[in-house]
UniProtKB/TrEMBL annotation:
GO molecular function term, any single one: FAD binding
Cross-referenced PANTHER family: BLR3436 PROTEIN, NADPH DEHYDROGENASE C23G7.10C-RELATED
Pfam family, any one: Oxidored_FMN
Stored InterPro entries: Aldolase_TIM, FAD-bd, FAD/NAD-bd_sf, OxRdtase_FMN_N, YqjM-like
Source organism of this protein record: Bradyrhizobium lablabi
NCBIfam families according to UniProt: PRK08255.1 (NF006101)
Protein name in the entry: Salicylyl-CoA 5-hydroxylase
Length: 782
């Protein structure tokens, strides 16, 4: 077999090593345009888990690499005169040049041919090769040459960054957030060998310009950064090596394989440096390719196996990197946070590290986080314990005169089980059991303001006395048997009305028994959906009156809070999104115009709702579709509702158009809540694939939302909040009939949690930093 590898970076060299080990008789040649000892950049960083992989796949190179590494466990966050250190992270750094030389030497030992200063620009040179590996880096000429086939998408990020080095020794992976007269600068720094550390400087485009960095050469830029961070560099110089300021390109390729050619490493996909994953991804690509080549019957099958098997892991890493880089791009959102909350946000920004995870690794740090959160709550007038505060999830919150005992919310979820809009015994049990289960706040499903406002024939409503009586029964039960507050969500289906029950065909039009639908514009949801009638002034006045009438009925029922549904492509949301609003009158065009009618309805509801009771609005913070609502639009929408008197923005996303392409994942909508809360300066509730109390605490402690709504977890476990309270040792109300069960779970949870934590600690392997420290520790005197 003949294999040509274009690119002598970590991806290409490691692929050569692993493939040669598999096929000792294969002719494998690596072609590199630079000299053997050329390298750009300074250090690379790996986690312990990545090193475990290296040890498994090639022990000789692993041993050489680990002999050269600098190890550390701590992450240190410097912010506004404070430093917070968090241990147990298991990182190690190595000189990029040293890494390349080790891999080169190992490749030669195995019989790989290495050709340096060899520029390859045409794959025709390798017509006789069985496999061509394209590992020619972030600016891959082969990816660009075959751009129509590989279809790379390049997202050039907004922040500027420059890669430098220093002689400053470091004993932790260090983040420094530095305020300057021009704006914030960030340093990502870590040691990679004795006397050498990597320094990546980052700032936003406006700060970059104001600081006069535009047009400076490498040395001038280094001098400017040295002056800004002189207090920490402590007289050590900054070193340069192609240290130009640039924008990070997030690259995703639709295809990785063309014939017998395959993209590897940065040539196919990049991940932001803030999670230290570039070289890791590259070398793990090589592992995946080698595994595929070992298992498949031929090269073509191997390349398909590689692409399909590896893509999910790469995309997961890229998603984490995306979330992380967005946090750094918008660090100004958090600049007025308490320093410990800020540090917690740094640690949990990419969602991989959580509240519970940090509690095991850095319990003192999490205790500081809890105290800082409790201090904020006390500042709002609550007499909470500051010495031994409960977890953020169980801290109270006040909206106007309504107080909720904890931050766990039962999300609004349509049950499609009403009869002509009347809630049934199913609804009484559904809402009542979840209130008894300990949640601080219960939201009703979208309750429709008129018969023709329903999504399906099974939707609840509030337009007649029978419905009002049924809802009153539910509200009375919740108040009599729990400490939960209950919020009425009112909405109108608009163009998504007259459809089947969810389990019969979600959003599919009724085949019989339907009703006329209305919307901002006459656009059907599906091609075969009913074409809605465009609302005129008379229709707008009629619907607004329906919302007001339902609001008054909601007050008569005794609801504690009211929400206007303005999301998911329903009637009011259809005015806001440009994808569903094509009007040419004063209710179409600009965002301000598109908001005009929803604000009219909200203001009429607010006037009818008691002043001491809070109101919220549910919005879709993005349509997940080109040309639709974006996160920045959501901030403007939230501000407009805030000025109109909203107390809470319920931040959801999507469901506006049928061809939307949401990016799912854990807590996938939380970044939008984060943006709205910390830019619009309004209280928010987040929702969306939030499944654990750990995630709830992580979101709240990081300042990404004020309330957290969970849907599916509450469907299968009405006592979700009670169980979480037992786990975290927090008090939660319980009806007397259920007290024996509460007492038992609280007793058992103390032991269960201790057993769990002991098992976690015992089962966690020691980091290489810990092992190295033990190995170098002097023996105790006898």
């Amino acid at each position: 077999m003949k294999i040509a590898i274009i690119g002598g970076g970590p991806a290409g060299l490691y692929a050569a090593i692993l493939l040669k080990k598999q096929r000792p008789q294969a002719e494998i040649t690596v072609y590199e345009r630079n000299r053997a000892d050329d390298t750009f950049g300074f250090g690379v960083v790996f986690s312990d888990a990545t090193l475990d992989n290296f040890e498994k796949y090639d022990p000789p190179s692993y041993r050489r690499i680990t002999e050269e590494f600098a190890y550390w466990d701590d992450i240190a966050v410097h912010f506004r005169g404070t430093v917070h250190r968090v241990g147990g992270n298991g990182f190690c750094g190595c000189s990029r040049r040293t890494l390349l030389l080790i891999l080169q030497e190992r490749a030669r030992e195995l019989g790989v041919t290495l050709l340096f200063e060899t520029d390859i620009d045409d794959e025709a040179r390798f017509a006789d090769a069985d496999l061509i590996v394209l590992a020619d880096g972030i600016n891959s000429r082969f990816r660009d040459k075959h751009i129509e086939h590989f279809q790379p998408q390049v997202d050039l990020r907004s922040n500027k960054f420059a890669w430098m080095g220093s002689t400053r020794p470091l004993d932790a992976f260090t983040f420094i957030f530095q305020e300057t007269e021009w704006g914030p600068f960030i340093a990502h720094a870590y040691q990679y060998e004795a006397g050498r550390s990597t320094w990546i400087f980052e700032t936003d485009a406006e700060t970059f310009k104001r600081a006069g960095l535009e047009g400076l050469d490498e040395q001038q830029s280094a001098d400017r950064m040295a002056k800004i961070f002189d207090w920490f560099l402590d007289g050590h110089p900054l070193l340069i090596n192609r240290s130009m300021w640039r924008n990070f390109p997030m690259i995703r390729s639709q295809r990785w394989v063309k014939g017998n050619m395959v993209l590897l490493g940065d040539a196919k996909a990049t991940a932001h440096f803030s999670i230290g994953s570039g070289t890791k991804l590259a070398m793990e690509d090589a592992i995946a390719l080698a595994d595929a080549m070992a298992q498949a019957p031929n090269v073509n099958a191997a390349l398909q196996t590689y692409e399909h098997g590896r893509r999910e892991e790469v995309e997961k890493t890229q998603h984490a990197a995306d979330v992380s880089l967005v946090w750094f791009e918008h660090v100004d959102r958090f600049w007025d946070f308490d320093p410990v909350q800020f540090a917690f946000g740094v640690m949990t920004r990419a969602k991989a590290i959580t509240y519970d995870n940090l509690t095991l690794r850095a319990p003192e740090f999490v205790r500081e986080v809890d105290k800082a959160f409790a201090k904020q709550v006390r500042g709002k007038g609550f007499d909470v314990d500051l010495d031994k505060p409960v977890a953020p999830m169980f801290q109270p919150l006040k909206l106007r005169e309504m107080e909720v005992a904890n931050r766990a919310v039962v999300s609004p979820m349509c049950m499609y089980s009403a009869r002509e809009g009347v809630p049934t015994d199913f609804h009484l049990v559904h809402y009542g059991s979840r209130a008894i289960g300990g949640a601080g706040l219960i939201f009703t499903e979208m309750t429709c303001v008129g018969r023709d406002a329903r999504i399906t024939p099974g939707c609840t409503g509030l337009w007649n006395d029978e419905q009002q009586a049924a809802w009153t029964r539910i509200v009375d039960f919740v108040h009599a048997n729990s400490a939960a507050k209950i919020c009425l969500q009112l909405g109108h289906a608009g163009r998504k009305g007259a459809t089947k029950l969810m389990w019969e065909g979600m959003d599919r039009p009724l085949e019989e028994g339907g009703w006329d639908t209305i919307s901002a514009s006459p656009l059907p949801y599906f091609p075969d959906s009913q074409v809605p009638r465009e609302m005129d002034r008379a229709a707008m006045d009629h619907v607004k009156a329906e919302f007001v009438a339902a609001t008054l009925r909601g007050e008569a029922c005794g609801f504690d809070m009211l929400e206007m549904h303005c999301a998911h492509g329903y009637l009011l949301a259809s005015f806001i999104s440009p994808l569903t609003n094509q009007r040419t009158d004063e209710y179409g065009g600009t965002l301000a115009n598109r908001l005009r009618y929803p604000l009219e309805v909200f203001e009429a509801m607010r006037a009818a709702w008691p002043a001491h009771k809070p109101m919220s609005v549910r919005i879709s913070a993005t349509d997940w579709a080109a040309g639709g609502i974006t996160g920045d639009d959501a901030v403007a929408v939230a501000r407009a509702f805030g000025e109109a008197g909203v107390d809470l923005v319920d931040v959801s996303t999507g469901q506006t158009v049928r061809d939307a392409q949401p990016i799912y994942g854990r807590m996938f909508q939380t970044p939008f809540s984060d943006q709205v809360r910390n830019e619009a300066r309004v209280a928010t509730m987040c929702v969306g694939n939030i499944t654990t109390a750990d995630q709830v605490n992580t979101i709240l402690a990081a300042g990404r939302a004020d309330l957290v709504a969970l849907g599916r977890p509450h469907l299968v476990d009405p006592s979700f909040t009670m169980r979480a309270a037992a786990w975290y040792g927090a008090d939660v109300a319980c009806p007397p009939q259920y007290l024996p069960g509460r007492e038992q779970i609280f007793r058992n949870s103390v032991r269960d949690r201790q057993d769990f934590e002991d098992l976690k600690i015992k089962g966690k392997p020691k980091t290489r930093a810990e092992l190295k420290a033990e190995a170098t520790k002097p023996l105790a005197a006898e």
